[in-house]
Amino acid sequence: MKYCMFIMAFFSYTQLLFPQEKEYTSVDYPEGYTADIDVLYTQEGNWKGYMDIFTNPNATNPTPVVINIHGGGWKSGQKESQTGLETFFSRGYAVANVAYRLIDVAPAPAAIEDVRCALLYIYRNAKTLNIDTNKIVIMGGSAGGHLALMAGLLAGNNSFDSNCPNSEHIKVAAIIDKYGVTDLTPLAYKNSPRDWLGLNNTDAEFVKKVSPINYVSQNSPPIFIAHGDADPIVPYQQSIILYKRLKAFKVKTRLLTIKKGKHGNFTKKQNILLSKNIWKFLNNLGL
């Protein structure tokens, strides 16, 4: 009995030391597409930023692209978790799934810096990737929604581009924000936002600087917003204030309220509604 207990304890201990990585289903991309996995887009110290890029090198014309940012409260999640992209492939899009620094590597604003570098990488390598720089869509859910908003709304503002210096004025064609944080000020002392902000969570100016709401202007790109009105993690009000700010600046926008929707994990019916409305929005933009 003691031997069995020792063996069980040993395996529990080794699992803590060497945790098994969660396995994800590979991205199902169409014939004719090329998959470039773990493309190095930036490096900071010993940390290497990778993205997976799925492109159509044989397309007659440069293709649109969606840069997809995973969620996870800035503390978890992997680029490999981002699947279900068939609707983008079916419409001729290239897809880039991006990894970024999580809290255990570096607190705010590291994740913003990384996503900006990813956007710049796509922009600078567009010709090689056969991508149309006038048709860049950036999308994310939850923390990924926050990062997509920051990367897109910053446009030519290079405040977070110290790791990838540039003088280019980049403007994305559209942002798809799914239940992302838009204003960290009222959330700075709560759970994941507090952890991500780190010691800066008491610095009001810093908190404003990493909040997308403060970068909205009349020149902002069109933004599609989706949020469940019963979201227990990111308050639905976060999307309402963004929508109102965008409308005040006459920016093209659409707020889809998922009735009784939680924090993602929508029902099949809700996901169909979401996809339908995203494509209606993008189609109206010529994307």
Structural features, described:
By secondary structure, this protein is an alpha/beta fold. Helices cover 33% and strands 21% of the residues. The chain has an 8-stranded mixed β-sheet with strand order 1-2-4-3-5-6-7-8, with helices on both faces. Helix 3 packs across helix 5.
Portion in beta strands: 15-25%
Assign an overall shape: globular
Biggest β-sheet strands, sense, barrel: 8 strands, mixed
Structural class: alpha/beta
Q: Would you kindly provide a brief summary of this structure?
A:
33% of the residues lie in helices and 21% in strands. The protein is built from 9 helices and 8 strands.
Features:
eight-stranded mixed beta sheet; alpha/beta; 21% strand; 287 residues
Question: What is the topological layout?
Answer:
Layout: H1 2-17, E1 34-44, E2 47-55, E3 63-69, H2 86-90, E4 94-98, H3 110-124, H4 126-129, E5 131-141, H5 143-154, E6 174-178, H6 191-197, H7 204-209, E7 223-228, H8 237-248, E8 253-258, H9 268-284
Parallel strand pairs: 3-4, 3-5, 5-6, 6-7, 7-8
Antiparallel strand pairs: 1-2, 2-4
Helix pairs in contact: 3-5
